[in-house]
Design brief:
Elements (H helix, E strand, L loop, with lengths): L2 H24 L11 E6 L2 E13 L1 H4 E2 L3 H10 L6 E11 L4 E4 L14 H7 L9 E3 L5 H4 L3 E2 L2 E2 L5 E5 H7 L2 H6 L5 H16 L3 E4 L3 E4 L2 E5 L8 E7 L2 E5 L7 H4 L6 E2 L5 H18 L2 E3 L8 E7 L2 E6 L7
Parallel strand pairs: 5-6, 6-9, 9-10, 14-16
Antiparallel strand pairs: 1-2, 2-4, 3-15, 4-5, 7-8, 11-12, 12-13, 13-14, 16-17, 17-18
């Protein structure tokens, strides 16, 4: 073979190898997975970690009340969101340095296959369920308590669970279960099953209304969404974070118009009053807020705009 023939043969082989490599990369399967579901920030000396339990599609045009489906659809469109809305379920971990506190516990297996990722997110964030000292529940709907138990056992074996007594009296009552319509019994049964391991072990402790739970964390009664719905205020070194739970559900709809309610509310009028009060205070105070169903990580600030509000998500940062 002449030198020129060798050069041509080598060039052909190189071209084939490059094509084969490119083709192999193009044929790689799509991963179709997100990053680990946690986001971390500092609040003074406290470490705050948002934990994703997953997302679930909600047909909000059917669920929103004190409005119309057409108005809801327009509001969703302005936010480039379509019905059903892929809705985040968030929980929050507060490390005070002496206590590790989880606020809400996700859905576990109670709300469908796209949720239940809380423990995986917790572990990805560098913690283990056994390290959680206390769990504060905003309310006892299944997407907030379902992750407390699995197969009848406590997922967080060393934790004390706390919630407002008005929610406990309602959701953990056999009388409530007996009186509930058939299509609502599942919510109550889910709450009972989720709390049972902690109740049986003497590790459930209800509080009554506004209560300081540990240094830097206090509960504030906000009944309406449920009889004992509570929000949690975390403060350290002059910084403040208010964890809203389910004071609101659909950002695209309720920030522009806080009067819009949702069918999940036990008392929609009371829920709307609590939401309006919380929105106004957050905008005036300029402190951090977080909510269970804001797009993950659900942390940011609120500012007023006209008769409504605009949510400003946290700027991504690395704690240091």
């Amino acid at each position: 073979m002449t030198l020129m023939s060798r050069i041509r043969a080598g060039a052909a082989a190189l071209t084939f190898a490059m094509f084969a490599t490119t083709a192999a990369h193009a044929a790689a399967p799509m991963v179709k997975a997100q990053v680990p579901g946690y986001y971390r920030m500092m609040l003074g000396d406290f470490e705050i970690t948002a934990l994703s339990d997953g997302t679930v599609g909600l047909e909000v045009e059917k669920l929103m009340t004190a409005t119309t489906p057409a108005q809801t659809k327009r509001a969703l469109g302005r936010a480039f969101v379509k019905d059903p809305v892929e809705t985040s379920v968030n929980a929050y971990l507060v490390n005070t340095g002496s206590k590790l506190v989880l606020i809400d516990a996700g859905a576990g297996k109670l709300f469908g296959p796209t949720l239940g990722g809380l423990v995986a997110s917790l572990k990805a964030a560098g913690y283990q369920p056994e390290q959680v000292d206390e769990i504060y529940i905003t309310h006892m709907h299944p997407d907030h308590v379902g992750g407390l138990a699995a197969d009848g056992k406590a997922v967080f074996p060393n934790a004390v669970v706390r919630a407002d007594k008005h929610d406990a009296d309602f959701w953990l009552s056999q009388k409530t279960l007996d009186a509930a319509p058939k299509d609502e019994k599942g919510f109550i049964e889910g709450a009972m099953a989720s709390l049972k391991p902690y109740v049986d072990a003497g590790k459930f402790s209800a509080f009554d209304g506004n209560t300081e739970l540990i240094a830097g964390v206090k509960a504030v009664a906000t009944p309406g969404h449920t009889p004992g719905h509570a929000i949690y205020i975390v403060e350290n070194k002059g910084q403040k974070l208010v964890l809203w739970g389910d004071l609101m559900h659909v950002a695209a709809v309720q920030f522009p118009n806080p009067a819009v309610t949702i069918k999940f509310d036990t008392d929609s009028k009371a829920a709307a009053v609590q939401r309006k009060k919380a929105f106004a205070d957050a905008a005036k105070g300029g402190y951090w807020i977080a909510a269970a169903h804001l797009a993950f990580p659900g942390i940011g600030h609120l500012r007023s705009e006209g008769s409504g509000y605009v949510f400003v998500p946290a700027n991504f940062s690395v704690p240091h």
